């Protein structure tokens, strides 16, 4: 994708998805962190149903640690990968209490030190809660950005690096949400809805498929 096409794509995305925000429900940094951990290979809609119950009495790391692993697994079973997610949430909660005074740390390195928190999750928390410039590459962002031609990479980390180079820094966090919502609404994983896509004129994938 050349510079002109890139600028056109970003302009269209910014207009179509103006004001796009996370679909996950949360009230605190801790709730956001837990929700993002739960969202791995799970829909945000399902996570929101689970956290609506979980957070009624366990919305802080201290309260979460009153649960045993088995008890937490029962709450989050429907999110999938429930054993590892429960272990990660409890371990992260313990570190937040013991190492960070009960507060989710703002430092990127400290965030990544928490169990279950990789590059994507740390970027989401940094961007959404701490209002820092960041691009979190989930499955939607990875798929859409590489189809469009904003990136040409085979890993999420390389995709993140290329998106940071392609998108002005002040739009990183917004672009993350634009790409997610475009992936949900139009650029589906199995069958992208190219016929109803406002980006088809500047999309590498569309050009390849249609000569």
From TrEMBL:
HhH-GPD domain segment(s): 38-185
Q: Which GO terms describe its molecular function?
A: 4 iron, 4 sulfur cluster binding; class I DNA-(apurinic or apyrimidinic site) endonuclease activity; DNA binding; DNA N-glycosylase activity; metal ion binding
Q: Does the keyword Cytoplasm apply?
A: no
Enzyme Commission number, as recorded: 4.2.99.18
Q: Which Gene3D superfamilies does the record match to this protein? A: Helix-hairpin-Helix base-excision DNA repair enzymes (C-terminal) (1.10.1670.10), Hypothetical protein, domain 2 (1.10.340.30)
Broad enzyme group = lyase
Question: Which InterPro entries does this UniProt record tie to the protein?
Answer: DNA_glycosylase, Endonuclease3_FeS-loop_motif, HhH-GPD_domain, HhH_base_excis_C, HhH_motif, Nth
Q: A GO biological process this protein is involved in? A: base-excision repair, AP site formation
Database matches in CDD domains = ENDO3c
| Cofactors demanded by this protein | [4Fe-4S] cluster
The residues that the entry says bind [4Fe-4S] cluster are 187, 194, 197, 203
Mind telling me which HAMAP family this protein's record contains? Nth (MF_00942)
According to its UniProt entry, the function of this protein is described as:
DNA repair enzyme that has both DNA N-glycosylase activity and AP-lyase activity. The DNA N-glycosylase activity releases various damaged pyrimidines from DNA by cleaving the N-glycosidic bond, leaving an AP (apurinic/apyrimidinic) site. The AP-lyase activity cleaves the phosphodiester bond 3' to the AP site by a beta-elimination, leaving a 3'-terminal unsaturated sugar and a product with a terminal 5'-phosphate.
Q: What is this protein called in UniProt?
A: Endonuclease III
Protein's organism: Candidatus Borkfalkia avistercoris
List the taxonomic lineage. Answer: Bacteria, Bacillati, Bacillota, Clostridia, Christensenellales
The protein's gene is named: nth
């Amino acid at each position: 994708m050349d510079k002109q096409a890139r600028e056109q794509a970003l302009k269209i995305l910014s207009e179509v998805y103006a004001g796009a925000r996370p679909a996950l429900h949360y009230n605190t940094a801790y709730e956001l962190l837990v929700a993002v951990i739960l969202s791995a290979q799970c829909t945000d809609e399902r996570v929101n149903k689970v956290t609506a119950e979980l957070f009624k009495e366990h919305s802080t790391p201290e309260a979460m640690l009153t649960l045993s692993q088995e008890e937490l697994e029962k709450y989050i079973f429907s999110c999938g990968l429930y054993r590892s997610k429960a272990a990660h949430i409890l371990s992260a909660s313990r570190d937040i209490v013991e190492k960070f005074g009960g507060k989710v740390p703002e430092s990127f390195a400290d965030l990544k030190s928490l169990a279950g928190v990789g590059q994507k999750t740390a970027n989401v928390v940094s961007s959404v809660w701490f209002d820092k410039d960041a691009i979190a590459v989930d499955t939607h962002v990875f798929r859409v950005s590489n189809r469009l031609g904003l990136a040409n990479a085979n890993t999420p980390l390389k995709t993140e690096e290329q998106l940071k180079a392609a998108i002005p820094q002040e739009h990183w966090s917004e672009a993350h949400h634009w790409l997610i919502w475009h992936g949900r609404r139009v650029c589906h994983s199995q069958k992208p809805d190219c016929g109803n896509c406002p980006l088809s004129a500047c999309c590498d994938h569309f050009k390849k498929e249609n000569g």
